[in-house]
C-alpha cells in the first residue's frame, strides 16, 4: 500500500484523551487521523469540573475547542463509527468505518471510553447531568448538604455513599428492588454514618426543569431528594480492544503500562477505557502521555538513543 495512504496514528475516540493525543501528535508533525462517533459519555453534564483553566466548561464546548486546536495543527477529524479493527502486520492496522471506508495506520490509540449501566427508573433521564450523576469526584462539591439518594447495591453503592459523605450527611442507599448484597463490614460502615438502606423498587423520579425533587417507591414512600447518584456498572463503549486482542481486566478495561501501551505491539489506550480515576483532566493527561510514547516509537533509528 502506498505510504501516502497510511496514517502514522489513528485515534479512535474524540473525548479529552483522544483530542489531547491528536493535538500533541500533530504538533510532532505526524500524520494523524481521529475518528469520533459523537456519542460521549458525559455529553449531558452541565459542566466538566476540576479541569484546570476550564472549570465548569460544558462538555460540547471543551470538545469543540479541542477539535479546533487539533485541526489547526494538521490532525484530520472524521465523524464516524469504527466497526472493525484488525492488525495486518507489525506496523499496519486497518479500521473499518460504518460508511464503508477504511483507515490504515502504523499506530492505534484507543480512546473509546466507557458507558454506564442505567437503572430503569422513569424520570431519571430528565435530570441526568443536572442533578443526577455517576461520579462523586466530579460533582460531589455541588452535592454539599443536599438530600442525596444513591441507587445501587453491594460494594459499589457503599463506596459511592462513603465518597459522598465528604460533602453531605443526608444520604440514603436504595437498591431499587435488588438484594442489598452487604456483608457485615459494609453494613457496619453504613451504620457508623447513619446511612439507611432501602430495598424497595423505585417507581419514578419527580423533577422540574432538571431539578430532582423526590423519589417515589413502590411501597408508597416518597423521599425528598435534591441529588441522585447511581452506581450500577460500566462497560466499554465498543469491543475494539477485544478485536485487537488487547489484555483486559475483570471489568473489561484495557490494561496498559506506564507509557499507555497495551499488550499488543503498537496499540495504545487512554482515558476512561483504562483502569484508574475517571476524570476528564486525567484523560487529557493520558492522551498526552500516550502521544509522547507513540511519537518516540515512530522515530527512525538514527534519531533515537537507547
Description:
The protein is an alpha/beta fold and 306 residues long. The protein has helices at 16-27, 59-72, 136-139, 154-164, 184-192, 240-243, 280-298, and strands at 6-12, 32-36, 76-79, 82-89, 92-97, 102-110, 114-116, 132-133, 148-152, 171-174, 197-198, 202-208, 211-217, 222-224, 227-231, 234-236, 267-269. The model has no long low-confidence stretch (mean pLDDT 93).
Task: Give a quick precis of the structure.
The chain has 306 residues and is an alpha/beta fold. Helix content is 24%, strand content 27%.
Count of individual helical segments: 7
Q: How far is the first residue's CA from the last residue's CA? A: 31 Å
Tell me the series of helices and strands, N- to C-terminal: EHEHEEEEEEHEHEHEEEEEEHEH
Oligomer: single chain
Overall helicity: 10-25%
Instruction: Find the count of extended strands (DSSP E, 2+ residues).
Output: 17
What value does the average pLDDT take?
Answer: 93
Question: Major sheet: size, sense and barrel closure?
Answer: 7 strands, mixed
Q: What ranges have pLDDT less than 50 throughout 5 or more consecutive residues?
A: none
Kindly provide the radius of gyration, computed on alpha-carbon positions and rounded to a whole number of angstroms. Answer: 22 Å
Overall 3D shape: elongated
**What percentage of the residues does DSSP assign to strands (E)?**
25-35%
Amino acid at each position: 500500500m502506498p505510504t501516502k495512504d497510511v496514517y502514522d496514528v489513528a485515534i479512535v475516540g474524540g473525548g479529552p484523551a483522544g483530542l489531547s493525543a491528536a493535538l500533541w501528535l500533530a504538533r510532532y508533525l505526524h500524520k494523524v487521523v481521529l475518528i469520533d462517533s459523537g456519542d460521549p459519555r458525559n455529553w449531558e453534564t452541565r459542566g466538566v469540573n476540576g479541569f484546570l483553566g476550564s472549570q465548569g466548561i460544558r462538555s460540547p464546548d471543551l470538545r469543540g475547542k479541542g477539535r479546533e486546536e487539533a485541526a489547526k495543527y494538521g490532525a484530520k477529524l472524521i465523524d464516524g463509527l469504527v466497526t472493525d479493527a484488525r492488525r495486518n502486520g507489525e506496523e499496519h492496522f486497518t479500521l473499518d468505518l460504518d460508511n464503508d471506508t477504511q483507515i490504515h495506520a502504523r499506530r492505534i490509540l484507543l480512546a473509546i471510553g466507557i458507558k454506564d449501566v442505567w437503572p430503569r427508573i422513569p424520570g431519571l433521564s430528565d435530570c441526568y447531568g443536572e442533578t443526577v450523576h455517576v461520579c462523586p469526584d466530579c460533582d460531589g462539591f455541588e452535592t454539599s448538604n443536599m438530600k442525596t439518594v444513591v441507587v445501587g447495591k453491594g460494594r459499589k453503592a457503599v463506596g459511592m455513599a462513603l465518597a459522598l459523605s465528604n460533602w453531605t450527611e443526608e444520604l440514603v442507599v436504595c437498591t431499587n428492588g435488588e438484594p442489598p448484597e452487604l456483608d457485615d463490614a459494609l453494613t457496619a460502615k453504613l451504620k457508623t454514618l447513619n446511612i439507611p438502606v432501602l430495598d424497595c423498587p423505585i417507581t419514578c423520579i419527580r423533577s422540574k426543569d432538571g431539578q430532582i425533587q423526590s423519589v417515589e417507591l413502590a411501597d408508597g414512600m416518597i423521599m425528598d431528594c435534591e441529588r441522585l447518584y447511581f452506581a450500577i456498572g460500566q462497560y466499554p463503549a465498543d469491543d475494539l480492544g477485544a478485536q485487537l486482542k488487547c489484555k483486559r481486566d475483570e471489568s473489561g478495561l484495557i490494561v496498559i503500562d506506564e507509557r499507555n501501551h497495551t499488550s499488543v505491539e503498537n496499540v495504545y489506550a487512554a482515558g476512561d477505557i483504562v483502569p484508574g480515576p475517571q476524570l476528564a483532566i486525567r484523560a487529557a493527561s493520558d492522551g498526552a502521555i500516550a502521544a509522547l510514547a507513540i511519537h518516540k516509537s515512530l522515530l527512525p533509528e538514527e534519531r533515537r538513543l537507547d
